[in-house]
């Protein structure tokens, strides 16, 4: 898997080796072999115009390793490089810490000081026009719900109004604490709803336009996977022209792209379209769509949640009715560019067209999803999301794979570097490459630049082989006993990663009285505050589910033990993964391995990655589910994990944890 990369000389700019060395010195770090290998590999991929996947373990310093060649390329080609992340945390780290330090360090060595900007989707910026003129229909949606929600939304609206007076960026993420989607919607527009800067009275001072302009002038544009996907699909080019993209947190790419292209129909989406169009066309035409929406509401309320494999006749007729009545409304609205000299009316019409198009096109997609003779030919899956107290049931539609889309639209036009601490599943990149649509020989390269951590000496992977397999009825008593013994040995300092919120809560409830260390559970407070509390108080333990598997970065003695209750397969009733699994099987593949096992391997590797966050860290990963060593797929899962020292003997991790608990605390290094 390792490939030898050599530094590529260039006529007028310093080599990436030289630039990296200057950058590392400037930030007070030391040279790491994995980082040097990565910087050269990225440079070579850019030069050869070849896609590259790089697995780089925690502590490699991978952001510098891709930013240095990216900046160099931007200077050389006079075209920006786009860096895409999945999380806001990484986005912030890049623009608030890594890029400013790099720009300062490399400024003297390059023709100019490197420049950078962040660019998000239009919905993330305050729309000055809507904030002042408004098209005030969206807030009525709240009236459907609890009056307390309405007043909470009202308070948030007031806060946004005050913030709007002083913000310099209009970026929603700078509004702290955050606000609900309902409140924000009253101050933002989608790209489709925007009037266009030329026609909008606020166009000259529009935050989204200013961010876009700025992005067009810099060397590095930092964005997110969703905007990258929207841009790549090409209907609305939003990013400045570019040839090179770096996708960090690339293990999230497929899920984020799938979210972007998932469609939804519910009483809310239909009634929103009706409200937006209601004042602009004859009432009787809008009423027809409203009635179709009522039919859908009644059907969805009576149907069980889950995949809709066969289209029931009555649902098919309702979808046709929604499609046709939405289209009648579109026709009644007249030409799309009417009223272009009246911004108020133009804004209202654009908002109406956008909502109607979405309803119409989603109904068409759902009907088309059933137009195939066999399972193997299907392209999309439709399912009923049962809703919650705050959200009514909704019908959703999503593609069974996004590989073709990524292959044609993202990889077809650009050189893409994909990186993450977790890309090799079962020891190879093949699984993720197939999901990205990169399967052909010579299309891409994959390298694992390793990790600066000494996994076999720093961590133990303990699998509780003697325990029963996890069942459907909650955590067995033996699991609770095992967790208690491990936590007692570690003196707390435990991150409990559970496969469901229900299991995390059940374990917390059962163990709070049994343990004499503080035990926090996700949901007790905001996750950010809980992680902070966990990090600051050594004996404290934190139990939780999905977001903790990937989002906890606690170096030092507060985290010595990671407990994983079961191999994190997707739920068998998860509509999208179960449909994807069936689809692979219908095409002759191994659906379980291609979907469920890959999902579990990725999450297991992410969860195990919480343990070692700095060179001094030591500890134990305890997996209670014996299938990790007994099942036929166990080799694949184990090969997806870092090379910890392995054991199934419960005495060994307990003794190691006791020793660690007795050790004097060493400082954490980043
Ligand atoms: S140009 Fe679009 S986003 Fe900007 S203020 Fe006008 S309507 Fe809002």
Keywords:
disordered N terminus, DNA 5'-3' helicase, hydrolase activity, alpha/beta, seven-stranded parallel beta sheet, single chain, EC 5.6.2.3, 26 helices, 670 residues, globular, binds iron/sulfur cluster
Sequence-ordered SSE layout with sheet pairings:
Elements: H1 16-26, H2 33-48, E1 51-55, H3 62-77, E2 81-85, H4 88-106, E3 116-118, H5 128-132, H6 147-166, H7 181-185, H8 207-215, E4 220-224, H9 225-233, E5 244-247, H10 253-260, E6 263-266, H11 267-278, H12 283-302, E7 306-307, H13 313-333, H14 343-368, E8 380-385, E9 394-399, H15 403-411, E10 415-420, H16 430-436, E11 444-448, H17 455-458, E12 459-463, H18 477-490, E13 494-497, H19 501-511, E14 519-521, H20 527-536, E15 541-544, H21 546-551, E16 561-564, H22 575-586, H23 591-608, E17 619-623, H24 627-630, H25 634-638, E18 645-647, H26 651-662
Parallel strand pairs: 1-10, 1-11, 2-4, 2-5, 3-4, 5-10, 12-17, 12-18, 13-15, 13-16, 14-15, 16-17
Antiparallel strand pairs: 6-9, 7-8, 8-9
Helix pairs in contact: 1-3, 1-4, 2-3, 3-4, 9-10, 9-15, 11-12, 11-14, 12-13, 13-14, 18-26, 22-23
The protein binds iron/sulfur cluster.
Iron/sulfur cluster (SF4) is lined by residues 122, 127-130, 189, 194-195, 197, 200, 202-203, 206, 208-209.
